[in-house]
Amino acid sequence: MQASLKFLQANGAKVKKAAKDSPKQWQKYFWLAVGGEVLFIPLIFVMAGFWDPRRAKKQEQEHEALIDVELAKLTQAESTPTS
Questions:
Q1: Within this chain, do residues 34 and 3 fall inside the same structural domain, yes or no?
Q2: Among the listed residues 61, 83, 81, 80, the one whose alpha carbon sits nearest the alpha carbon of residue 72
Q3: How far, CA to CA in Å, does 75 sit from each of 14, 32, 56, 62?
Q4: How far out from the chain centre does Cα 16 lie?
Q5: Where is 46: in which H helix or E strand?
Q6: Model confidence pLDDT, tens digit, residues 4-57
Q7: Whole domain around residue 73: which residue ranges?
Q8: How far apart are CA 21 and CA 35, in angstroms?
C-alpha cells in the first residue's frame, strides 16, 4: 500500500494522463486493423499461385518435366564432340 502511494505521489500526473488516454488508444488500433483489412481483401484476388492443390501439383509436374527436357538437351550437347 505504501509503495503504491509513493508511486502515485511521484508519478500521479502520468498515471492520470494514462488513465484518461487509455479508452481512446484501442480505437487507433481498431482503425489501423480496419485499414489493413480494406487493403488486404482486394489483394486476395490478385495473389499469385493456385488455390486448388490439384492444379498446383499439375503445374509443378509440368514444370519438372520441362526442366528434365532442358537438362537432357544440355547434357546431350555437352557429350557431343565438337569438330
A1: yes
A2: 80
A3: 74, 55, 28, 20
A4: 38
A5: none
A6: 888 888 888 888 888 888 877 888 889 999 999 999 999 888 887 777 899 999
A7: 49-83
A8: 22
